[in-house]
C-alpha cells in the first residue's frame, strides 16, 4: 500500500513540475533557466518513478489485479 501512495505522490509532483515549467515559460521573457530546471526535475522524477514501478513489480509489491 505504501508503494502505491509513493507512486501517486510522485505523479502529482511530476504534474506540478510540468505546470511550473509552463508558468515559467509564459512569464519569463529574459531566459529559460527556470523552465529548463523545472523540466529537468520532471525528467528526473519520471525516471525515478519508472525505477520505482519496476522495483515494485519485481518484489511483488504491485502486480496484476485479481480477476
Task: Describe the model.
The protein has helices at residues 2-27, 33-58. It has 67 residues and is an all-alpha fold. The protein has one domain. The protein is elongated, with a radius of gyration of 16 Å.
Please summarize what this structure is:
78% of the residues lie in helices and 0% in strands. By secondary structure, it is mainly alpha-helical.
- Biggest sheet overview: none
Overall domain count: 1
List unreliable stretches of 5+ residues: none
Kindly, what is the distance between the CA atoms of the first and last residues, rounded to a whole number of angstroms? 19 Å
Q: Average pLDDT value? A: 87
Shape: elongated
Q: Strand fraction band?
A: under 5%
Percent in helix: over 70%
Secondary-structure element pattern, one letter each: HH
The number of helical runs is 2
Summing up helix and strand content along with how strands pair, one would put the structural category as: mainly alpha
Q: Tell me the radius of gyration.
A: 16 Å
DSSP summary, beta strand count: 0
